[in-house]
Amino acid sequence: MKYISRKSLLYKTGVEYGDYTLNHIQGCSHGCKYPCYAMMMAKRFGKVKTYDEWCRPKLVENALELLDKEIPKLKEKIESVHLCFTTDPFMYGYEEISDMSIKIIEKLNLAGIRCNVLTKGILPFELSQLSKENEYGITIVSLDEEFRAEMEPNTAPFRDRIRALRRLSEAGCKTWVSMEPYPTPNFIQQDLYQILDEISFCDKIIFGRLNYNKKVSEYKNYKDFYNNMANEVINYCIDNGKEYHIKDGTITLK
Ligand code: SF4
Question: How many CB atoms lie within 10 A of CB 5?
Answer without folding.
Answer: 11
